[in-house]
Amino acid sequence: MEKLQHESHQLVCLCGQNMQIQQEEIMGQVII
């Protein structure tokens, strides 16, 4: 169970980073 929770936590972190990168790209496009 602990291992499964750890892996899901890593996935959440990856998704969070991807969302942040996409938001930065969108902001960059809007500024340009």
- Mean pLDDT over all positions: 75
The oligomeric state of the chains shown is single chain
- Rg, rounded, reads 14 Å
Helix/strand order, N-terminal first: H
Largest sheet: none
State the helical fraction.
over 70%
Distance between the termini: 47 Å
Strand content: under 5%
* Number of helices, counting only DSSP H or I runs of 4 residues or more: 1
Helix- and strand-based class?
A: mainly alpha
Kindly state the number of beta strands: 0
Shape: rod-shaped
Poorly predicted ranges:
none
Care to describe what's here?
The protein is an all-alpha fold. It is built from 1 helix and no strands. It has one helix at residues 2-31. The longest helix has 30 residues, at 2-31. The radius of gyration is 14 Å and the shape is rod-shaped. The N and C termini lie far apart (47 Å). The mean pLDDT is 75.
Summarize the structure.
The chain has 32 residues and is mostly helical. It has one helix and no strands.
From the structure above, extract its key features.
32 residues; mainly alpha; 1 helix
Describe the secondary-structure layout.
Elements: H1 2-31
